[in-house]
Amino acid sequence: MKLLDEDVWSLFKRHWQQTLTYWSVFFSFGLCIAFLGPTILDLRCQTQSSLSQITWVFFSQQLFLLLGSAVGGRFKKTLLSSLVALLSCTLIISVVFAIIPLCHHFILLSLAMAVAGKAMGVIDTIANLQLVKLYQKDSAIFLQALHFFIGLGALVSPLVADPFLADDNCVLGVNWTANSSSSSDLEHLRSSLAGHGVTPNNISQYPLHTEGIVVTRVSYAFWIMAVINLPVPAAVLALMYHERLLPCSSKSPKLLGSNHQSGPGSGGDDDQGHGSVFGCCDLVKLRDRPATFFILHALGGAILFITDGIIGSYAGFVYTYAVSPPLLMGHKTAGCLDSVFWAAITAGRLAFIYLSYRYAAPRLLTFCLAGVIVVQCLLLIFYTSCVFLFIGTCVLGLCISSVFPLMLAFTEDVLDYKGCATTVLVTSASTGEMLLQLLVGSVIHSHGSYSFLLCCTIASFIGFCLFLLLLYVKSIHRNEQPDSSKSMDLKEKPEMGDS
């Protein structure tokens, strides 16, 4: 049995260089998004900041990632502008990796992470947009592969950083031998921070030195990651040369002003709709759209707001839940949960590359969202079982891993690839990942760790109900389409008669 039929394979062969380039920039995205958690204690030492101060670096990265996602669509009016933006952003990520060791104040570090976050957001939007435009109805399988590379980058980044992390307190104060935290306390704190689900309130119990001699080798990790990332902008540059978008590639006419997208069914009108979130609000372009057009955007965005929020919240707080009563799991064992979760997400995206080809997106989405609910309910029932927490974490990662690429491909297909769905969905997902973590974190702080599972379960039920509503609105929207096409024909017939 062939993995791909001849039509899909021929499409890939036609666009292989663009496809591999977009996959590689998502590796860069994953590399950048995963390094902050494991290295944050060493960065605290480097900047000689308190933990309350250094956690603002997380917020800075997430906020500007959201802003980058919102404005990323503005760079895709032409293939040239898209590739220039990707080249700039991937270079920025390498530069940020290189200059992080030079940031000796947490404000400078926050600014560097804001720049990196903005670049990551632009990458997120453009790569998704371009793949959807290239493959359209066949985009689901290639979007699955695209998001697999995020997981791959997120796995590589901590592996690079780990040999250079400090085992003990990396700021040696005057009385450090008596007052410094033990190695097990630092390991516990590092695992808490690695999930991104931290606030100044729940880490203030860990007093660490801010004055003294800094002893950390984490700079080498960032310089290595800067070098690892350099082939990515080189791949974008090679694609620009291949597409004759560079001054030096003048063997044949350049296509600077055209869209130069050879995807099936791509046209000039598509680019007009795929702008930034703010460009999507052009009333002149959207006044003739049916109400279902806007409702589909809103529902798709709301579903991804919830599912990406669940991913961020679970990754952020599963460690805190595991080490709290009634589980009271050991720090080292609990620290593996986050790695198991992200490994399951990566494996799930790899498996769904094939499943997306074999089965329709609505069926897979139904299976995934229903699976998330079942797993969350079982975690609530067996909340005292450490073994089931590991099993549930793995299954949850597999189920929720591919909701984003499936929802993106499905929504764009329903809207006939003429709206700004990709930008809206990417921005909604980024917003959910940031805001739902803050909400769950505040609930945990006030009501205890068990409320973490309850919040995720309620959110998964809401997400599934919204998906059922999306299917209903989709059927209404499809029924309205023939009427609109007939009205267009009636408008054209008198003009043809007049001529």
Tag the structure with descriptive keywords:
Growth Hormone, Chain: A, disordered C terminus, two-stranded antiparallel sheet, 499 residues
Helix content: over 70%
In whole angstroms, the N-to-C terminal distance is: 55 Å
Number of domains: 2
Report the uncertain regions. 176-180, 199-206, 252-274, 484-499
Which geometry do the CA atoms define?
globular
How many runs of DSSP E, i.e. beta strands? 2
Task: Briefly characterize the structure.
Helices cover 74% and strands 1% of the residues.
Characterization of this structure:
This protein has two domains: 17-246, Growth Hormone, Chain: A (Up-down Bundle), CATH 1.20.1250; 286-488, Growth Hormone, Chain: A (Up-down Bundle), CATH 1.20.1250.20. The protein has 21 helices and two strands. It is globular, with a radius of gyration of 24 Å. The chain has 499 residues and is an all-alpha fold. The chain has helices spanning 6-14, 16-34, 36-47, 51-54, 56-71, 79-99, 106-135, 139-161, 176-179, 183-194, 218-229, 231-242, 268-273, 283-286, 291-323, 331-358, 361-381, 386-400, 403-414, 421-447, 450-498, and strands at residues 171-172, 213-214. It has a two-stranded antiparallel ribbon with strand order 1-2.
Strand-helix topology:
Elements: H1 6-14, H2 16-34, H3 36-47, H4 51-54, H5 56-71, H6 79-99, H7 106-135, H8 139-161, E1 171-172, H9 176-179, H10 183-194, E2 213-214, H11 218-229, H12 231-242, H13 268-273, H14 283-286, H15 291-323, H16 331-358, H17 361-381, H18 386-400, H19 403-414, H20 421-447, H21 450-498
Antiparallel strand pairs: 1-2
